[in-house]
Amino acid sequence: MEVAGLVALACAFIIGLGAIGACLGIGMMGGKYLEASARQPELMNALQTKMFLLAGLIDAAYLIGVGIAMLFAFANPFV
């Protein structure tokens, strides 16, 4: 029973820390995009494309972590 409790705690850490990291990453990236587009408005379209691509990659990394946490939560290989 102790292993199941520790796995649940590990899943919570994976999801929680991943969410915090994704939020901070997207927030910093959005701020830098606004700064760059204010400095050089003619590059706004190219920068916007790169920003959305990176936002998708950041979210994908978080969702991979959620998938791994769900694997441990429902199909626990340690039990």
Automatic annotation (TrEMBL):
Coiled-coil intervals, chain numbering: none
Family that this chain belongs to: Belongs to the ATPase C chain family.
Known function: F(1)F(0) ATP synthase produces ATP from ADP in the presence of a proton or sodium gradient. F-type ATPases consist of two structural domains, F(1) containing the extramembraneous catalytic core and F(0) containing the membrane proton channel, linked together by a central stalk and a peripheral stalk. During catalysis, ATP synthesis in the catalytic domain of F(1) is coupled via a rotary mechanism of the central stalk subunits to proton translocation. Key component of the F(0) channel; it plays a direct role in translocation across the membrane. A homomeric c-ring of between 10-14 subunits forms the central stalk rotor element with the F(1) delta and epsilon subunits.
Site (Reversibly protonated during proton transport): D59
Span of domain V-ATPase proteolipid subunit C-like: 9-72
Gene Ontology MF: a single term: lipid binding
Keyword Transport: yes
GO cellular component term, pick one: proton-transporting ATP synthase complex
Subcellular location: Cell membrane
Keyword terms of this UniProt record: ATP synthesis, Cell membrane, CF(0), Hydrogen ion transport, Ion transport, Lipid-binding, Membrane, Transmembrane, Transmembrane helix, Transport
Pfam families: ATP-synt_C
Topology class, membrane: Multi-pass membrane protein
HAMAP family recorded: ATP_synth_c_bact
Transmembrane annotation, as ranges: 6-30, 51-75
Name the UniProt record assigns to this protein: ATP synthase subunit c
